[in-house]
């Protein structure tokens, strides 16, 4: 069974849509490869930033809990 022929949304080239192709189904492998080769720069957080983020998340959870489970009296 032949693979379906698609047209790339970026470069308008025809390509075969094969199973387990990385990227989007409407992009050719060359256009999809550019997206995966970009290095992902992950920001490192120090202990103060992690503590601040943890406290902010706890405050958000508490606020949501209060909104969801408050009694209307």
TrEMBL record:
Region (Disordered): 36-58
Biased composition (Basic and acidic residues): 41-53
Cellular component, GO, one term: DNA-directed RNA polymerase complex
Domain of life assignment: Bacteria
The entry's keywords: DNA-directed RNA polymerase, Transcription
Name of the molecule in the record: DNA-directed RNA polymerase subunit RPC12/RpoP
């Amino acid at each position: 069974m032949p693979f379906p022929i698609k047209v790339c949304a970026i470069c308008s080239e025809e390509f075969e849509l094969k199973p387990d192709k990385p990227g989007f189904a409407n992009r050719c492998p060359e256009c999809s490869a550019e997206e995966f080769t970009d290095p992902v720069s992950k920001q490192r957080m120090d202990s103060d930033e992690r503590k601040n983020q943890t406290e902010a998340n706890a405050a958000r959870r508490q606020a949501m809990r209060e909104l969801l489970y408050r009694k209307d009296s």
